[in-house]
Structures are given as C-alpha cells and as structure tokens.
Structures
1.
Amino acid sequence: MRSTTPSSIILLALCAIPALSAPIQHTLAPRTENSLNWTDCSAYPWLRSKDLQCGNITVPVDWAAPSGETFTLRMVRLPRPANATRPRVGSLFINPGGPGGSGVTAVANIASGFEPVSEEILHSFDLIGVDPRGVQQSVESICDSAIWAERVSLFPKTQEEYDRLVDKNRRLGESCRAQMGSVVDHLDTISAARDHEAVRAALGEDMNWLGISYGSMLGAQYAQLFPGKIRTMVFDGVLQHSRSEWDNARIETTAYAASLRKFFDWAETNDESALKGRDVEKFWYELLAKARQTPIQNPWCNYTNIPPQFRDCREDVNEEDILFNTQGLLLTTRQQNRVFLAEALVKASQGNADDFASSLPMSFNPSLFAGITIGCQDWAPTDSSFEDLQAKMRMVEEAASLTKGASQTWTLQASCIGWPNAPKNPPAKLNIKTQDPILLVNSLRDPSTSYEWAVGMQDEIEKSVLLTRNGDGHTSWSLSGATRVAIDHYLITEELPAPGTVLDS
C-alpha cells in the first residue's frame, strides 16, 4: 500500500482492499453511549477471510463537542482461533502507518495470509484493525482529483512557481471541505487517538498496541492522553512529531541519502546488478539532469482522450518524480528489490521511466487524499513566503545533495503551504509517563523513519527501551528475524529486551 509519490506521506506498505461500502458520511446526531457489536463479514467477500468480524462504533466529529456531529468508526477483528494453543492475552491493535494507512486492510491481510504473523501472536490475541478518521471506511477523505493531478513543483525555483504551489494547495483543501464537510477540520492524530480509546473502552480491556511508522505517532499521542490504560506498546519505525520543520526535513532526507549511497555501493559491485561496474553516483546525477531537462516517458500510462481526473498516473516522469519515488523503492532491502531498482534506473536512462511514475487518486490508492487531509492537521508549515521556502530548500539540499532534500517530510511540508484549514495538532514535545515502559524499535539505516527520531523519542517517554536492528530498510516487524521475535515476546509476556540490545535481523 506504500505510495512513493510526492502526493503521499505513506510510511508503510500493505496491499489495499476495496471499501466495505460507499464512503461513510457523518451525520448530525447526538452522541449515544458507545457499544461495539461484531458481525461476520460475509457480505464483503473481498476481505478474503471467513474468520474476520466487522464492527463499528459512533464517535463525535469534534471531541470537544461530544454532543454534536458524529460519524461511524469502522473496524475489523480477527479472533484467536477456537483451537488456540496459548492462553488469551487480550486484544492487539495494529496500525500500519500513513497517515492514511488502513487498519482494516492490515488485519484483513493478516487474516488472508498475505502478511505472515507468528502463531504465538495469532493464538494470544484478537487482532483489531481500525480505519482511523479520514481513512477508507471511517469518513473516507475525498478531494478533487483534477486539482490533485495538476503538476506543480514541490521545489519552486521562482515566485511564480511558488504561487502556483500555494494556489493548488488552497484549492485542493477547499475541494476536500466541499466534499467532506466540517469533519475535514478534525482529522488530526489527537482526535484519532481519542477514537481508539473509545474502541478500547468498549472492548473493556487494556490497550496492546503495535504502531508501525506513523502508527508510532498515533500510539504516542494515545500514550500522552491515556497512560493508565496501556498494557504493552510497540513503536516500530519511530516518527517524532516535536522537531522543527528544518530538523525533520534534514533528518529524513539525510537518512534517505545514506540508504541511497549504500544501494549505489551494492549496485556497482553485485553480480545481479544491471549497474555493475559503473559509477552509479555519476549515473544518478546524469539521469536526474536528463529528467529535469525533458521529462522521461511512462509508456504504461500513455493515455489519450482521457481527462486528467480519470487517469491513474502521469504519462511522463520528471526529476522530482525520480527523487521522491526512489525513496519508496529503498524501503525494503531484499536482494530482489535492489535488483529491481537497478534495472528500473537503467530502463529510465533508456527512455522508459514507468517504475518512477507518480500515482494519481484514480489508481486504487485510497491513502493519497488521507495523507494530506490528516497530515495538514498535524504539521503546520511556518514558511510564509517564497524567500522562506527558498532558504529551507537550500539548507536541505546542502545537507543531502544526493537526494536534493527530497523526502516524505518535504512532500508534506510543501503540500500544506496555503492549506485552508488551521492545524489542530501542531508539533509539540510530549511528556509520556506510563506505568510500564514502551518498546521503541528502529533499524539503524531506515530511509524513512530515521534512527535519530527514535533516539529523540526517548526524551519524550519517561520509561522506554530502544531495540535496535543493525540493518537497512523501513520497520522491522514485517521481517521474519530476531527483532520480530523480540517484539512478539514483549507483546505476549511484557518482558522487554535489555536496554541497548542490538539485533542483526
């Protein structure tokens, strides 16, 4: 599900599934006492598992006005099997990231076997997947696809380009409001954390949380608000919300650049690499220059007579597309992924850049709109002029010339300039005081959620243990290695790895 386009801030990839129904609209209704009923999901065969149960709960659009408008929060549950060989521990909430990632999708993928999970976890917990507000079933984010498809630079070089960027952002935000109503003002992560507390309270159990990538930020907001409700919490691929804009842009783009340089080293020497024996860094800069001068064709999306709002990708690829989308291709460092990236770069140099094409909302990527509608409620750009943005651009390009400052963080910062509704949850340092420690997990060389963020979050959580994977790639639980075993062991037993533990897989 991970999108690598400049129009998305998705931080983890799981395969998407069709919606359970038409987009849910919020309604004017007084809030009633929450109740949670589970039914079978047989009406939705695309969920691919007869074991899943579907549920929903009513929550307020604005938690500060609980008697006002409400909407339906949708979720699924995968109960532990009837023949489970281990004692039941409780319910485990899984959030796959984003903002925009679907918990329904994540748990449905586990139920269908698409995402392998250990038998110990499956036999110990009922797995809960909630679609956060603004995501798919829970008041899906809907905006104007034609405005989204307009190509503007996220690195404007002139006042005119900057004005086009700000104008597009403003019009896109206004289109979201026109289609979604007032709920678009309440898609922030604090509100989503309160939604999850409503589900936990309805279940009547302590919180067990596995937050992957952006799911770590959602979990941290929950822990700040409800520290006494937690049994176990894992933040895998840690996102820190309290840094300055400049810090965040620098931190992520330098992590991306370090991963890209390591790929170059592999590509120059590995027998399976289509770039073996070449100066790959030189090749990289030449490819960027070529795409900057003349966008490279994307034959896969060479549509004719189809209006922009009905296209699912762009018919060519420019320098920014390559810069932003290569980051996503580095998230997984398995050999076959490296081989693919090397071949994609060679193919692009020969005039076919379809592997770096940016997705548009008509492709089945429901997270595209959610990423921006949620993200602009959590990150408030402080750039108020072309000169301000230019100064920050120069700083990030100097920090990471290999990536020229590109990152998912930059995407969001640039895409929220001019956004019409004010953020509800601007960056702020947390002071989390839970009874038991929270487990932080990060790879040393994550190209998306930098190890620096994980270290920084230790200062915001009074009790935490940082488990380090001495490896590459984004997040660790999806890998079948020692780090995943340690995470599972903690979730089941509450036994933490020793502080300072470093694992190699």
Note: The CA atoms of residues 182 and 400 lie 39 Å apart.
2.
Amino acid sequence: MLKLKQLQQQKQAAQQAKAVEQEAAAAATNGGDAAATEPATNGETKSTSTTPHAAASLMAKYKASSGKKEEGVMSLSKAGGRNKKRQNAVELRVQKDLAEMDPVPGTEVDLPEVDNIMKLKVKVTPTDGLYQGATFSFDLDIPHNYPYEPPKATCTTMVYHPNIDLEGHVCLNILRADWMPVLSLGSVIFGLMTLFLEPNPDDPLNKEAAQLMIDRPRDFERNVKQALQGGYVAGKQFPRLLK
C-alpha cells in the first residue's frame, strides 16, 4: 500500500475532528437540530472543485434538493429513530469536511445525486509525474458509521497502475489499516492524488505492473505512456486519456 509521507496538518485535523464529534454528538442527542442551523450559501449548482467556495456551493446544491427529506429525518429522529439520528450526524460530519477542505490542485469534487451527500465523484488530474495531464474519475462512497470507518474509493477510469487494479480497486493505506477518525475527506482526496504522483510497487494490486516497475522501470514508464494514449498493454486496451 502507498505510505503517505505528506499528510498535511495532522494536528489541525485532530482538533477539527474533536470539534466535529462534539457537534455530531449534539446532533444525535437533539435529533439533528444542529444540521438545521448550518449557514446557507448562494445555491450555486455547478460542478465543484475543492476550494472552500466550491465546497460551500456543493453543500448548497445538496441542501436545496434535500430540505424536505431532512425535515422528515428530524421528525423521525425526535420520535426515537436512532438510525436516522446517526445518519444525520454523519451527514453533518461530511458537510464539515467539505466546508473545511483545503484545496488540492488538480482535483474536483461533485455530487452525482444532489440529494445524497454520502456519494461523491472525485476527478484527479495529476500535476506531475508519469500520469500528468490525464484525468481519472473515482466514486467515493461514505459509510453510515463515518468517520469510524473509511470511505470506499473505486476508480472508474481504467488505468495501468501498480496500486489500482483493472476493476478499479484502490490500494491506499489510509483507506484501510491506517484509517483514523481524525482524518477527513480532504486527506482521502490528497491521498488519491498522491497515488499518481508517487506510485508504490511494494504492496500492489496490479502485481505485473508493480514487478515491472521494480525490475525494468523504463519498460514500466513505456507501458504507462502507451496505456494513457489508448494502446494495448498486457493484452488489454486502455482508454485514451492523452492526446
């Protein structure tokens, strides 16, 4: 698995996580009333990047389409629906993650279902390295016990990469054994970018690609370029991602 060496602002993340968990606990106790007091935004509905303004627009898009649904959730919560309370607390945490996310150059985040903040689309366009200039799409599914369980990332763009197999499974340490509740969606998106900036062959999913990267790095680089240009590698044709 890729060992991230550059996870930013760990101390700040821990402080934010503590504040989030306090708010989540309040939301669970009060039936989600805390979510109803979230500040409104200007309601933009365009596809968003990971700037604070864009994250606010994404949440405005979600809230505008799910306001009636949220009212129903709060009513059920007050009637004793514990699952609904927990769900609302998780959504509050996701909203906070998005609002406080530091920009990650070369990434975009969007809601494929405007009334479901638990499913995100992430586009990663590496700014350096072998995969520079190509764009890779990921589905990010957030579990109902987030942040105690990590999101699940699936790469929907076929790619020749030691840490991503041809079915789109992703090998990233913070999405598995190294996940901690103090980490955030911003940490995950940063990690997805780092996969392309620093591919790691030591604990791979695509073992053939990883072994080639170790034994014959020039041949590995040639395969990456051929795959990005829509060519055949190891008997598979890849989508054209570069001109």
Note: The first strand starts at residue 48 and ends at 49.
